[in-house]
Amino acid sequence: MIRGVRGATTVSENNADEIILHTQTLAEEMIAQNEIYPNDVATVLVSVTADLNATFPAKPIREIEGWSYVPVMCMQEIDVPGGLAKCIRIMMTINTSKDQQEIAHVYHHEAKKLRPDLLK
C-alpha cells in the first residue's frame, strides 16, 4: 500500500543552519517512528513558507545514509494570510503494510498547532 507521512516544523528565523537542523531532525523522527527505509520511499516533497529562502531544506534529507537516490523536491507553500510563518512541511510517499491510522505524523515547535488531532 502507498501511504503519505506528514511532518512539519518551524524555525525562529530565515537562517540556513537552523533550516537544515530542523529539517534533518524532523525527517529523522518521521523515518524512525514509521520504520521507513529508503527503498520504500517513492518521493519526498518539502515545502517552505514564503519567508524562508536561506537554503534548500531538501539537502539534509539527501544526506541521510542511504537516501541519496530518493527523489526529494522543494517548493514554496501557498502564502495564505494568517498562516503559520517560518514553517517547513514534509510529505513522504512510502510503500508500507501499515494501515492509515498506524502512520505516525510528526509535528515540531509551532507546527504542532497545524494538526493537534494527529499528534500521538
UniProtKB/TrEMBL annotation:
Which residues are listed for prephenate binding in this entry?
Answer: 6, 89, 107
Q: What is catalyzed by this enzyme?
A: chorismate = prephenate
Name of the protein in question: chorismate mutase
Q: Name one Pfam family in it.
A: CM_1
Q: Which GO terms describe its biological process?
A: amino acid biosynthetic process; aromatic amino acid family biosynthetic process; chorismate metabolic process
Q: Which organism is it from?
A: Natronobacillus azotifigens
This chain is encoded by the gene named aroH
What InterPro entries does the database record attribute to this sequence? Answer: Chorismate_mutase_AroH, RutC-like_sf
Provide the E.C. number(s) assigned to this enzyme.
5.4.99.5
Question: Molecular function (GO) terms listed?
Answer: chorismate mutase activity
